[in-house]
From TrEMBL:
This is Mannosyltransferase. The chain crosses the membrane at residues 24-43, 50-66, 72-96, 108-131, 159-183, 190-206, 212-231, 243-263. Its EC number is 2.4.1.-. Mannosyltransferase that operates in the biosynthetic pathway of dolichol-linked oligosaccharides, the glycan precursors employed in protein asparagine (N)-glycosylation. The assembly of dolichol-linked oligosaccharides begins on the cytosolic side of the endoplasmic reticulum membrane and finishes in its lumen. The sequential addition of sugars to dolichol pyrophosphate produces dolichol-linked oligosaccharides containing fourteen sugars, including two GlcNAcs, nine mannoses and three glucoses. Belongs to the glycosyltransferase 22 family. Pfam families: Glyco_transf_22 (PF03901). The keyword Cell division does not apply. Keywords: Endoplasmic reticulum, Glycosyltransferase, Membrane, Transferase, Transmembrane, Transmembrane helix. It is found in: Endoplasmic reticulum membrane. One of its GO terms (molecular function) is dol-P-Man:Man(7)GlcNAc(2)-PP-Dol alpha-1,6-mannosyltransferase activity.
Length: 623
């Protein structure tokens, strides 16, 4: 109905243009307007700017036809009831009439005063009734945007945004004919300058939208139509005129291409409508669904026309904080993608689909179509877990316990996480619910067997760990005893060369010296100072020698293990033993690094390196 009303007003506008400027200008006006995107697009949108557009078109029609009284009345209705910013545009037209002495101030006041009083009373009475408080809506909007200057709360744009962005997009290629119209057609100059003045003055407002200046499009299209009609009529005069006529006709094709592109872009601007339509196709028609529609979805396509399921309940409460209590009545949600990390949504709901919306426009040079429309996920369609279509789960009956089992060998993924549910079978007589319950019971039985198997294996491994810990405790105690006791010095008959790993005689003497250190409680302090001075080396260097030797032995052991593994496979217990041995050797290295080697070896005859190697070999043989 709104588009029809706008069309009727446009028909009146075109008829007056035909009478004043000729049929060619009227034809070009229609062609230009039909090939543009935004005016046709906005005609059916129930915005206050579009609701007032027919009145503005009637006012412009009266102004160019020199009908002063209807123009003032239409202007008063448009300004006081719908959009107060129109006082700039329509006020400039009145100012032009006063400047050119087509109208006096006394006559304006004579018509405008009773019109303003009547319109203002009508607006206050009707709107106060609906808002349940004394209110003049457009006066409140004017106060908010001008006095309080809070329009920037809804976003800001640069001062010239209307000129370099809004007008080029809304008028496409027709905009380039407007300057020629100002030069070639004097009759459109006052109206066009008033429109330009309105756009320039309204650019002071930080918050800018195309719909705020949509009233000037009929004026600019009229100016462009006058130019194109002049070019077309003069095509036969010269080659230049033919080229200009070709440009006038060709720009309509470019307008159509631009309109198709913008139509494609705009189709991605309604994720809410796409999400609700998709939800209808995902869920059965007979299902009992309660869906919450988030603010973004409600603003981007969700309307009463899409609420087609009579047994569904639709909620548009925009004050939810998405807590578990607030979400308990809903089976489905249309929420913004930024809420996907919400804890309650992750725990209680599963994602059905992402719905994408417009993000930006990209250029691709290796494709037939160089322009690409980029989208991004902006809405989520989520459904409550364990939801039954026939009988929606109440909060009291919803699954309340989830037990997650973790072990050292395997991490169970979220999709396969073990869940234990409490079912109240006395309230679930539906066949689908019973089937679901039986299926869950079978799954839990199979998984409980698996858990018991894992538990037995973990018990075996724990017993092995305790056993290995006991061995390690004895070794550490043994090393501490060696650390605090000093053996009786004994000359070794076979000295060891520096870097040698030790011979048989040296090992026997080392063991005798070590056994002696365990049997005696007396400590010989002779020559301790000299031995200590020789044995004192940097702990880091000592540790480096031990680790180097241990790594070399580890490589040899690993090579031998690989040959053994070709003959038989290692069990889980053997793997655990290898792990514990590695940790065991690390602790031994720490203990040896802090020992005084002069208590175990005769450092006058053998090197520290050989002494360390013998200690490691001895510990490995005992363990």
């Amino acid at each position: 109905m709104l588009a029809l009303i706008v069309s009727v007003a446009w028909s009146k506008w075109r008829q007056v243009v035909c009478n004043l400027y000729g049929s060619h200008v009227s034809l070009w006006l229609n062609l230009i307007t039909l090939t543009q995107f935004h005016l046709m697009f906005y005609m059916s949108r129930t915005l206050p700017n579009i609701m007032v557009l027919p009145i503005v078109i009637y006012a412009l029609t009266c102004w160019i036809a020199r009908q002063t009284k209807p123009f003032i009345i239409y202007s008063g209705v448009a300004i006081l009831i719908f959009r107060s910013e129109l006082s700039i545009f329509l006020g400039l037209l009145l100012l032009i009439d006063v400047v050119f002495k087509r109208l006096t101030v006394q006559r304006i006041l004579k018509i405008a005063t009773p019109t303003a009083v009547l319109v203002l009373i009508t607006s206050v009475v009707i709107d106060s009734f609906f808002w349940q408080r004394v209110l003049w809506p457009e006066g409140e909007v004017l106060w908010y945007n001008t006095v309080l200057n809070k329009s920037s709360n809804w976003g800001t744009s640069p001062f010239l945004w209307y000129f370099y962005s809004a007008l080029p997009r809304s008028m496409s290629c027709s905009l380039m004919f407007v300057p020629f119209g100002l030069i070639m057609e004097p009759r459109v100059r006052p109206l066009t300058f008033a429109a330009l003045g309105y756009v320039l003055i309204y650019s002071i407002m930080p918050h800018k939208e195309l719909r705020f200046i949509i009233y000037v499009l009929p004026v600019f299209n009229l100016t462009a139509a006058a130019t194109c009609a002049r070019f077309w009529l003069n095509a036969s005069k010269s080659l230049i005129h033919k080229f200009l006529a070709f440009c006038a006709g060709g720009h309509l094709l470019l307008n159509i291409l631009m309109t198709l592109f913008l139509l494609t872009v705009s189709s991605t601007n309604y994720p809410g409508g796409a999400a609700l339509s998709r939800l209808h196709s995902l869920e059965p028609e007979f299902s009992n669904v309660t869906v919450h529609i988030a603010n973004l979805a409600a603003q981007s396509g969700v309307s009463r026309f899409l609420q087609m399921r009579t047994n569904w309940r639709y909620c548009k409460n925009e004050y939810l904080n998405y807590t578990r209590v607030e979400l308990s009545p809903f089976s489905h949600l249309l929420v913004e993608a930024k809420n996907k990390h919400n804890t309650h949504l992750q725990e209680d709901f599963e994602t059905l689909e992402f719905v994408e919306c417009f993000h930006s426009i990209g250029i691709q040079y290796n494709s037939f179509t160089p322009v690409r429309i980029k989208t991004r996920p902006c809405l989520l369609i989520v459904r409550r877990k364990f939801y039954d279509f026939g009988n929606p789960i109440e909060e009291d009956n919803a699954p309340s316990e989830e037990i997650e089992l973790h072990n050292s060998q395997e991490q169970i993924s979220n999709d396969e996480g073990i869940s234990l549910r409490k079912e109240r079978t006395e309230t679930k007589t539906d066949k689908a619910r019973n089937s679901e319950y039986e299926k869950l019971k079978g799954t839990m039985h199979n998984r409980s067997d698996y858990v018991e198997t894992l538990s037995r294996e973990v018990d075996n491994l724990e017993s092995l760990v305790h056993q290995r810990k006991g061995i390690r405790t004895d070794i550490y105690k043994h090393l501490k005893d060696i650390k605090h006791k000093k053996p009786i010095r004994k000359k070794l008959s076979t000295p060891l060369d520096d870097g040698n790993t030790g011979g048989v005689d040296s090992r026997k003497e080392f063991r005798l010296a070590k056994q002696k250190s365990f049997d005696t409680n007396q400590i010989n302090f002779e020559d301790v100072g000299e031995a200590t001075r020789k044995a004192k080396t940097t702990k880091l260097k000592l540790r480096a020698i031990i680790e180097e030797y241990y790594r070399s032995k580890g490589r040899q052991t690993k090579k031998g293990d690989l040959e053994t593994m070709e003959e038989k496979s290692l069990t889980a217990q053997q793997s655990m033993e290898a792990t514990m041995k590695t940790e065991h050797m690390k602790q031994i290295i720490e203990e040896i690094s802090s020992m005084d080697l002069s208590q175990l070896c005769n450092l006058d005859k053998i090197s520290r390196k050989a002494c360390l190697k013998m200690i490691i070999d001895e510990i490995e043989e005992e363990s």
